[in-house]
Amino acid sequence: GDSVTQMEGPVTLSEEAFLTINCTYTATGYPSLFWYVQYPGEGLQLLLKATKADDKGSNKGFEATYRKETTSFHLEKGSVQVSDSAVYFCALSDSGGSNYKLTFGKGTLLTVNP
Amino acid sequence: DAGVIQSPRHEVTEMGQEVTLRCKPISGHNSLFWYRQTMMRGLELLIYFNNNVPIDDSGMPEDRFSAKMPNASFSTLKIQPSEPRDSAVYFCASRPGTGREETQYFGPGTRLLVL
């Protein structure tokens, strides 16, 4: 079945550091790929997405490129801020017939210190 | 748009009691999802509705759990009887349609504690 593997956390960085959170996937079809973010005490919200190979999703300084050849969708940000502290989830939308649902990774906790 | 609305936000109950969680999806969204989040298991999909019809309930843990969607603007998740291991955060999410590229929009969650 479809699956998502993302790097284990927690990740602790200093403000303005470079961030990479690795995500790889296994899928039988042609999934769409997503990064969701969960701030403390809140629900998940979409950070960015990519729907086909070589697409780059970007939002709030975060970027991720859909790499079909390496089945990866790594999240990057050039300079993190304290306000980026949250849990980040990589997800794919699988080809469940005509009704697609999300398969999530386990989440990576990011803490950014001032 | 008010987003996905869940109630209650917090629930504390005793083992054996019935618990009902409520969700109002975003207007016009055709798909609705119930998830459970715990430290041990992460985020688990419990059930998925499309046009008010349950499509996939393979994630519902056992017969103590049931979910309904009587109309396009309301869904419930019921646990009867509740047990301490049901303690978790329960999220409802909705989506405009069924395409693979579409975004799910999550509610703020209900934090359930069963004593």
Describe the structure.
The complex is a heterodimer of chains A (114) and B (115). With 114 residues, chain A is mainly beta. Chain A has no helices and twelve strands. In chain A, strands 2, 5, 6, 10, 11 and 12 form a six-stranded mixed sheet that branches. A four-stranded antiparallel sheet of chain A has the order 3-9-8-7, with no helix packed on it. Chain A has a two-stranded antiparallel sheet with strand order 1-4. Chain A is globular and about 45 Å long. The mean pLDDT of chain A is 92. Chain B is mainly beta and 115 residues long. Helix content of chain B is 0%, strand content 54%. Chain B has no helices and eleven strands. Chain B has strands at residues 5-7, 10-13, 19-24, 31-38, 42-50, 53-56, 65-71, 74-79, 88-95, 105-106, 110-114. In chain B, the strands form two sheets. In chain B, strands 2, 4, 5, 6, 9, 10 and 11 form a seven-stranded mixed sheet that branches. In chain B, strands 1-3-8-7 form a four-stranded antiparallel sheet, with no helix packed on it. In chain B, a hairpin with a 2-residue loop joins β7 (65-71) and β8. At the A-B interface, β5 and β6 of A face β5 and β10 of B.
What structural category arises from helix and sheet content of chain A?
mainly beta
Helix content of chain A: under 10%
Put simply, the count of helices of chain B is 0
What is the terminal-to-terminal distance of chain A?
41 Å
Shape type of chain A: globular
Strand content of chain A: over 45%
Unreliable runs of chain A: none
Low-pLDDT stretches of chain B: none
Number of helices, counting only DSSP H or I runs of 4 residues or more of chain A: 0
Percent in helix of chain B: under 10%
Radius of gyration of chain B (CA) equals: 13 Å
Shape estimate of chain B: globular
The profile of the biggest β sheet of chain A is:
6 strands, mixed
- The count of DSSP E runs of length 2 or more, i.e. the number of strands of chain A, is 12
In N-to-C order, the SSE pattern of chain B is EEEEEEEEEEE
Number of strands of chain B: 11
Which class best fits the helix and strand makeup of chain B? mainly beta
What is the first-to-last residue Cα distance of chain B?
36 Å
Radius of gyration of chain A, CA atoms, in whole angstroms: 14 Å
Element order of chain A: H for helix, E for strand: EEEEEEEEEEEE
